[in-house]
Amino acid sequence: MLQALYVDFNSYFASVEQQLRPELRGKPIGVLPVMAETTCCIAASYEAKAFGIKTGTIVKDARKLCKDMIFVEARPALYVEFHHKLIEIVESCTHVEEVRSIDEMVCKLTGSQQVKENALKLAAKIKREINRQYPHIRCSIGIAPNTFLSKVASNMQNPDGCVVIEQHEIPEKLYALKPRDLNGVGRQMEARLERYGITTIPALYAANRDQLRTAWGSIEGERMYDKLRGIEPYYVKSTRSSLGHSHVLPPEQRTIDGAKAVLHRLLQKAAMRMRSYDLLTSHISVKIKLRHPKTKEPARFYNESDISATDNTLKLTDALEALFHKFPRAMAKLEPIAVSVNFTKLIYAHEIAQDLFTEKPSASEKKLSNALDVLNLKYGKNTVYLGGAHNALKDAPMRIAFTHIPDMVIEED
Fold it and tell me: Dihedral of CA 156/160/165/169: which sign?
């Protein structure tokens, strides 16, 4: 029985740009996080993909592949705005059960919708309504017995496709695919499967539940066994595993002082986000990617530290300074090109068990953090900030990760 309808918007960022800018329609375009030759495309139009350009292609390589390539700087706020508009369109046709990412959502099929003919009519209606309002934004739709296979089906015909996988067609309809075509099988997982002799989809289906658990090294292998067979696995909702921000440095900030200022800016943004989720972190890490003049491979500085669980920007700033203090002098002459700060070991504030030997956060500390958030939300970002970020206030604008859709109130720059 058909249970899930998956909507995947094609070349989403690039399509939004083409929808808004007629001069870009029908042309190969790449969307960049920052206008710099050393960065890479975070999205490519289908016209660009025809030349082999894809997400992750370096600008200079894209120019070699397509001499007429056009680059535009990403506008995350607009992509979030269109994301919500597109959800409304799909919602007008059927209920959106879950938003998977900025450009993906899944709808649960019920009643007569579970009949193939009706499911296809629903898919056609969704496409028609999207095309009526935004003719340059297209989507591929997958329909299957569970969410996993509906996602697989949505990728089987791009762009603007619609593929149905019925229960009786499993697994034969998937045999032409490669394990890497399946969601959850990346480069490392592909290598692990190869070590167990699983190199094809038929071999993947031939493996039993225990073999897949061994190959995956976790219960996720058992879940994959079920997902491949059209069963919807049960997941216990848990706290997010990490929270942070990264940023490709613009040319004017490619100094150690510039990198440090941007790190402070990223930390302050991440701390505000964390408080909005009512989370605390007990682990912080920083990473700086630097260009080495003598080697093709970039140099990297990475440092991390456990800390007492906190959401306090002042304490997190102290932790960042301590990590940065260990930056090697030998790297000081290299050019930093990207930075990131990340919080892990997250826990909800109400779940924390206070350490007997750790001083509890004072009321004044909590009031200070709350005051920072209230003032910045009411009067605009950077109304109040800590001094370490002063020289990077215009840097590190809103970014959209694959599974994180920015909250326009919390994260708008």
Answer: negative
**Could you tell me the CATH number of the domain that includes residue 315?**
3.30.1490.100
The number of domains in the chain is: 3
| Catalytic residue flag (residue 98) | no
- What is the tens place of the pLDDT at every residue in 264-289? 999 998 998 888 888 899 999 999 99
104, 166, 194, 351: the catalytic one is 104
End-to-end CA distance of the chain: 46
pLDDT in tens, 349-359: 766 554 444 44
Residue 139: is it exposed, middle or buried by C-beta count within 10 angstroms (0-12/13-18/19+)?
buried
Planar angle of CA 388, 382, 264, nearest 5 degrees: 25
Indicate whether 95 and 202 sit together in one domain: no
The pTM for the full model equals 0.68
**What is the C-alpha to C-alpha distance for residues 280 and 311, in angstroms, rounded to an integer?**
5
Q: What pLDDT shows up at residue 100?
A: 87
Query: Which of residues 126, 151, 169 is at a domain's end?
Result: 169
Q: Are 280 and 349 in contact (CB under 8 A)?
A: yes
Closest by CA position to 270, among listed 261, 259, 281, 260: 281
Contact 347, 254 (CB under 8 A): no
